[in-house]
Specification:
The radius of gyration is 24 Å and the shape is elongated. The protein is built from 17 helices and seven strands. A hairpin with a 4-residue loop joins β4 and β5. The chain is an alpha/beta fold.
């Protein structure tokens, strides 16, 4: 029988974390970024907020994630009328008669390991106040004393960012912020297929991959790595450079967020099996932690590019754009094999080959590189075919 130490070794935990990521990505369409955001929150312990329209899979993703780690899950849809008792449990009347103030917390937030609070900005001021303490210290006041809550992380969601001043302090506590929209037209068929599979065969997918205790072990390692990487001069200097670029473009992180971003970068480095925090993981962490509104996203990407720190998402977009360009120009060449179209195809083909070489051997980009390579081979074959036809007609 294997010992608990062996089962919790870094190698085993890394494999299990990859299985968890792959399982989630296989169940959802075009939600790789949201999967990484949810996992980064989980293994860093940093709260996350998903900002997207209704019906874009926020609740389903976190619900399934909690099942895959066999965690006690608490979900609540907040309104302005929601009372704290609905979240943390009512006062036990029997104990109150004895002069003791005790809450009935079974099945409520105080006993949950994964918490998801929907429509967070609709919460009353009373809810906001006690949530701040829970987020900061993961504790709950139970009448006469604070009790430690076993919360691994807290997820929240909203259709939009609140512009109210009273929400600013709460919003700043959500370290990870993910803005996204509905699945695009090109993926609707996949959406229908996977969506129906989830609805019909739901109970066939969710055997636990990791345990809550293993997540706690990873959380400790994530924080330890973040601290150790303070000695990485290349990383820290680049981070300071990006922060300066962000400030000059009007995106300024609070002191708290500047620190938290490194913890998120450490978490992302664990997700991708890096031995230390890479510049790529740092870029991804900034992408999750720096924006206050959706309008900030382009400013952040521009700042990353200026600092020579392109994020994973930026690389993915480059690879997918070139693949689309190759596909479109090949269609034009097949329809009208004019010299101008062939020259354009050669130009895009050259850019695509250079891009595949330039992105290096990043594991996280391999599927996108492979897809672009297939399109490159197809373009080469088309050009070879056209050359043969031209020689035959000479």
């Amino acid at each position: 029988m294997k010992s608990d130490t062996c089962m919790s070794s870094p190698e085993v935990l890394g494999i299990k974390l990859s299985l968890l990521k792959n399982r989630l990505e296989s169940l959802f369409v075009d939600r790789d970024r949201e999967v990484v955001a949810s996992l980064a929150s989980l293994i860093s312990g940093e709260p996350a907020i998903f900002i997207s329209p209704p019906g874009t899979g926020k609740t389903k993703l976190i619900e399934i994630l909690s099942e895959l780690i066999n965690a006690r899950y608490f979900y609540y849809l907040l309104t302005k009328f929601t009372e704290p008792d609905e979240l943390i449990g009512p006062v036990d009347i029997a104990y109150l008669r004895k002069g003791k103030y005790v809450r009935l917390t079974k099945g409520r937030l105080p006993e949950a390991e994964v918490v998801f609070l929907d429509e967070i900005f609709r919460a009353s001021s009373a809810i906001r106040n006690f949530l701040l303490d829970i987020i900061l210290y993961k504790r709950i006041y139970n009448g006469s004393e604070y009790i430690k809550a076993p919360i691994l992380t807290i997820y929240t969601a909203s259709n939009e960012v609140s512009q109210e001043n009273e929400d600013a302090a709460l919003y700043d506590r959500f370290t990870i912020r993910d803005f996204y929209g509905p699945v695009g037209f090109d993926s609707w068929r996949q959406l229908l297929e996977k969506g129906l599979v989830l609805e019909i065969h739901r109970n066939n997918f969710f055997d636990p991959v990791l345990s809550a205790d293993e997540i706690r072990t990873i959380q400790e390692k994530v924080k330890q790595r973040a601290f150790e990487n303070l000695k990485n001069e290349t990383l820290i200097n680049k981070y300071l450079e990006v922060l300066a670029e962000l400030k000059s473009s009007g995106v300024e992180l609070s002191d708290r967020r500047k620190v938290k971003a490194l913890i998120v970068a450490s978490a992302i480095s664990f997700i991708y099996h890096e031995g230390e925090i890479s510049l790529e993981s740092l870029g991804d962490a900034i992408r999750f932690t720096a924006p206050s509104t959706e309008d900030d996203l382009k400013k952040i990407e521009d700042a990353l590019v200026k600092a020579g720190l392109t994020s994973y998402e930026y690389r993915v977009r480059q690879l997918k754009t070139l693949e689309t360009e190759l596909n479109n120009i090949m269609a034009r060449v097949k329809a009208v094999p004019a010299d101008s179209n062939i020259r354009a195809l050669n130009d895009v083909l050259s850019k695509s080959i250079n891009m595949v070489e330039r992105v290096g051997n990043s594991e996280r980009l391999e599927s996108y590189k492979s897809s672009l390579r297939d399109k490159i081979d197809e373009a080469k074959e088309l050009l070879s075919q056209l050359k043969g036809e031209s020689a035959g007609n000479a």
